[in-house]
Design brief:
Number of helices: 12
CATH superfamily: FAD/NAD(P)-binding domain
Largest sheet: 9 strands, mixed
Oligomer: single chain
Radius of gyration: 21 Å
CATH architecture: 3-Layer(bba) Sandwich
Shape: globular
Length: 445
């Protein structure tokens, strides 16, 4: 029998600033009104990132006559899902995790990710969401011999899985990317590139008609009774069942406390390149590069509107907010690494620098569960939010509606997050581990 949960006061609320370059280059959007008064629905989904948006849409598809509420503390497109690098990744992608070594786990992850990719592809196409959706694949690139050795292991895994790929040497890479900085890369064709803030906004603005979206409505208390009752500054939301899609904020809702932790990643985005700068850069159209060591290397994008994204400096976060004063320091650290990769663009600097928060577990397992009879969770995407968040939201909705989806077994097989050491031992250990991983991969900077 599932446990009865108590009323919880939510003390940690999202506090993202307005520095996100992806959002700032888009036109202004009019948000949906916040929750006001006392509202009763059949279903409530908390969190409007990739997981929450997928959960709300899937609930509406499964139960078209039910009333569904999607509630978020911020505006749709302001949170972590809109702050990533813009990759929809279809392959097992947790570098260093079990799914790189265990072929059965890799196949499960790939099935799940490809289902999510197709789901998003269908939504973008059907609703004509303008988010620079691009079937360009991705380059996993190496700077050093250490990175090349990792790529050799990666291709062995791809061979075992029967997956297609291309191996490119430095010269071929320079022809495709315009930069000769890399020694080698493996290109896999299934990844989709996109503008994340535009995609998240589009997903939120095209939900089925039986979904009501409440923005800028932080939940300050939750009563896990029957029904569940959410309290906000403007009113209450009562639902027969809820899906929690709050990712790194889940411990504040008494879910996965002591089992998940946040990672922060900084990114910078340039202005649009001039025609002369595009010609000087060279390469072929838009592309995306991921490093072999995420804690030392850089993730790069050349976007369809001719901007360059540079993401580097990933680290353990002791809290889910960052002081604005950190951005100038981060931008200064990004610039020489950017210059090393793009010496042909001496006049290009960054217009935007921001932070996004990821949610991780010790064993890279997702936070997918039913902790109570009327509560379901779809959190902890382990740094692959677009696909893993989408599939978690979809399957949480199917599980809640009693849909017999065989992919639920695949998700369950990925396990549950393991318990972490208590603080401050967690802080010390996580900080040391991140520093160690970065030092090990320093040749990939």
């Amino acid at each position: 029998m599932l446990p009865v949960m108590a009323t919880t006061t939510i003390k940690t609320l999202p506090n993202d600033d307005t520095t996100n370059g992806w959002a700032n280059i888009l036109p202004e959007r009019v948000p949906n009104p916040p929750l006001a008064g006392d509202v009763v629905v059949d279903w409530a989904v908390i969190g409007a990132g990739f997981a929450g948006l997928a959960a709300a849409r899937r609930l509406a598809e499964n139960r078209p006559n039910d009333a569904i509420a999607l509630i978020d503390a911020q505006r749709v497109g302001d949170g972590a899902s809109a702050r990533n690098s813009g990759f929809v990744i279809d392959l097992a992608h947790n570098v260093g995790s079990a799914d790189q070594a265990d072929l059965a786990a890799a196949r499960r992850s790939t099935r799940l990710s490809r289902t999510a990719t197709q789901y998003l592809d269908d939504i973008v196409t059907a609703n004509q969401i303008q988010c620079d959706w691009s079937h360009r694949g991705q380059h996993m690139s190496a700077v050093s011999g250490l990175g090349e050795a990792f790529l050799e292991g990666f291709t062995e895994e791809l061979d075992a899985l029967g997956e297609p790929y291309r191996v490119l040497d430095s010269r071929a890479l320079a022809g495709e990317l315009g930069t000769g900085y890399f020694r080698a890369a493996v290109h896999t064709p299934g990844t989709i590139l996109m503008q994340p803030a535009a995609l998240v906004r589009g997903l939120g603005d095209t939900l089925p008609s039986n979904v009501t979206v409440y923005e800028q409505s932080p939940v300050t208390a939750i009563d896990y009774g029957d029904p569940v009752k959410l309290t906000t500054a403007g009113g209450t939301l009562t639902a027969a069942k809820i899906i929690l899609a709050v990712n790194g904020f889940a411990p504040g809702f008494d879910q996965y406390r002591g089992k998940i932790f946040p990672i922060r990643a900084f990114a910078s985005l340039t202005r649009q390149l001039t025609d002369a700068e595009v010609a000087a850069l060279g390469g072929h159209g838009d592309w995306g590069v991921v490093p072999t060591n995420a804690f030392a290397g850089a993730t790069l994008r050349h976007t369809r509107d001719n901007r360059l994204l540079f993401r580097q400096n990933i680290g353990y976060a002791t809290r889910l907010s960052t002081d604005r004063s950190a951005y100038e320091t981060i931008q200064r650290s990004h610039l020489p690494l950017f210059r090393a990769r793009y010496p042909m663009l001496p006049d290009v600097t960054f217009d935007h620098t921001w932070v996004g928060f990821l949610c991780m577990s010790r064993n890279f397992a997702p936070g997918f569960s039913q902790p109570a009879a009327n509560v379901y969770t779809a959190v902890c995407q382990n740094a692959v939010g677009a696909t893993k968040g989408t599939i978690a939201g979809m399957l949480a909705a199917d599980l809640a509606c009693g849909v017999d989806n065989p992919l639920i077994a695949d998700m369950d097989a990925l396990g549950q997050p393991e318990r972490l050491p208590p603080r401050p031992f967690l802080d010390i250990g996580a900080w040391a581990a991140v520093k160690w991983w970065g030092w090990q991969g320093r040749s990939e900077r």
